[in-house]
Amino acid sequence: MEKIATNNFELPQLERKWDKGVIDCGWVAVPNLLLEHQGRLQITSSELNVLLALMKFWVDGAHAAYPSIKTISKMLGKTEKTIQNNIRSLSHRDGKPNGLERLLPQDWTGFIRVHRRKSPDNNGNLTNLYNFQPLVQVLHAIDEEQKKVKQELQRRKPRIILNPL
Description:
This protein is mainly alpha-helical and 165 residues long. The protein has a single domain, classed as Orthogonal Bundle (Arc Repressor Mutant, subunit A). A two-stranded antiparallel ribbon has the order 1-2. Helix 5 packs across helix 6. It is extended, with a radius of gyration of 21 Å. The protein starts with 12 loop residues before the first helix and ends in a 9-residue tail after the last helix.
């Protein structure tokens, strides 16, 4: 027999926020750093929506996501061309995010890597593979930068020493 929760604190955290039925439909983990630094990273709201939709299909770090453009288009209620433009923008940036130039690899070109696939049978298009490692690198660099700033602030923080009576 299933245990009935007597209060919300016995439910897992996500269920306490969203309800078990909602969570049972699936969910996407989004790092706070992405949301907190969206402006600094110059990721538009449209690009973020596409990025979140792609993340829905990202099972784990070892596997790329591979939804079709049509699937993302239907999810977001946008044209396929709009989705393609946002993916292109997310994968090909003119420069590195502000202040992170020295922290990212030389070959960094965007927040996602897109691998275009062809069918070996008829050379037709297959769904693209979307790799999120470049985004992980950027967020890691931001995390490291924040840790250094925190350490520096701690180092500079004046210490109050009380003399015993």
